[in-house]
Amino acid sequence: MDREESGEPQGGAPVNEWLLGALTVAAIAAVAAALVLGAVRRTVARQQVGIPPLPACPPPSPPTLEAAARYLGTTVAPSSVQRFSGHGLLGRRSVGLAVDAGGLRVDRGGDPWCIPAADLRGVEVTSHHAGKEVYADKVLVVDWQLGPATLRSGFVLDEAAAPRWATALRPPGGARGTPRGFPGGSGGRGAP
Questions:
Q1: Containing H/E element for 15?
Q2: pTM passes above 0.85
Q3: What is the mean pLDDT of each run of 10 residues along the chain (192 residues)?
Q4: Of 28, 124, 128, 139, which has the fewest CB atoms closer than 10 Å, so is most exposed?
């Protein structure tokens, strides 16, 4: 009497084929992930060449404005889609924002980075940034200087609060200088 007639399951061939298939898919996924991570690392290294590290945050002073926001990423200005991934600025996440005497402070869960007031170049409120559309004018887009590069960072705020943030951060006359909301800032309306 053979196995088929006795009712016993036939050899392990189907299980072995399934296991081999699963291991093949896992190996292909691992190679693809390694290739993507390698490409991201090369992009980060290439984008950081000639760009200084993010400025150290000064000790916090009493904030003019504070809010929770969603960080959409940083791009190379004037583009809103060419991402800048150097210095840990890649990725979307929830952040805390504060405007104080030193500039704009972005707190990534205990890992703050700052945009000094003197490095702000422009600000606008729009509905999109870095490939993300939010369907309302509540994205605060801040242009700022980091060494030779002008960068553009986007933050989603409450729709009612976004214009207030733009007013506080806007450089007077659209020129280099101290933005409103900072000590020494002007009260006049600057260009976006």
A1: helix 13-48
A2: no
A3: 54 77 92 87 74 84 92 88 81 90 87 89 91 89 92 93 90 48 34 34
A4: 28
